[in-house]
């Protein structure tokens, strides 16, 4: 009886479905190199598998560049000064850039530096070298920001 109860418990635990982890921006972005027109970052992402965790890490880096700035970098101030107002006014632009992953065209180099996790969860640290000048130009061309940050 004891063994059958233990077997049923193990069976029930192993059959539990893994809930996907939704994207949540964190401040876990660190500048590792400052270039004249580029910035190199390491960003952390958490999700239900390593592929999605890597996507979340990249998105986390871009959202922090856009709306928060990166401490100790050549982009300490956010590229977009008022996140809420800009998201309201330019929603379709951000949908393309962030949700449809248009940001990938600004990535010069990327690789997973560290990956950890257990069944149903993953944490990835992703290295990214981003063409900051091209991203700024893209924001200006789409009237998200004005030249010289005005």
Q: Which descriptors apply to this entry?
A:
38% helix; four-stranded antiparallel sheet; 150 residues; 24% strand
Strand content: 15-25%
Topology as H/E string? HEEHHHEEH
Number of helices: 5
Q: How far apart lie the N and C ends?
A: 74 Å
The gyration radius over C-alpha positions equals 19 Å
Mean pLDDT: 87
Largest sheet: 4 strands, antiparallel
Task: Describe it.
- By secondary structure, the protein is α+β, with helices and mostly antiparallel strands.
- Helix content is 38%, strand content 24%.
- It has 5 helices and 4 strands, in the order αββαααββα.
- The chain has a 4-stranded antiparallel sheet.
- It is globular and about 45 Å long.
- About 10% of the residues have low confidence.
In short, what is this structure?
The protein is an alpha+beta fold and 150 residues long. The protein has helices spanning 2-14, 50-67, 83-89, 91-99, 132-141; strands at 29-34, 38-47, 107-116, 122-131.
Task: List the topology elements.
Layout: H1 2-14, E1 29-34, E2 38-47, H2 50-67, H3 83-89, H4 91-99, E3 107-116, E4 122-131, H5 132-141
Antiparallel strand pairs: 1-2, 2-4, 3-4
């Amino acid at each position: 009886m004891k063994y059958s109860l233990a077997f049923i418990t193990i069976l029930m635990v192993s059959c539990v479905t893994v809930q996907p982890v939704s994207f949540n921006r964190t401040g876990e972005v660190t500048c590792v190199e400052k270039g004249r027109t580029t910035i190199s970052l390491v960003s952390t992402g958490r999700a239900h598998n390593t592929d999605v965790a890597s996507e979340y890490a990249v998105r986390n880096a871009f959202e922090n560049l856009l709306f928060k700035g990166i401490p100790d970098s050549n982009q300490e101030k956010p590229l977009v000064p008022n996140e809420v107002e800009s998201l309201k006014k330019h929603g379709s632009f951000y949908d393309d850039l962030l949700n449809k992953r248009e940001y990938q065209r600004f990535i010069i180099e990327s690789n997973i530096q560290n990956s950890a996790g257990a069944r149903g969860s993953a944490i990835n640290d992703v290295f990214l070298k981003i063409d900051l000048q091209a991203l700024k130009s893209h924001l200006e061309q789409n009237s998200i920001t004005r030249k010289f940050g005005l």
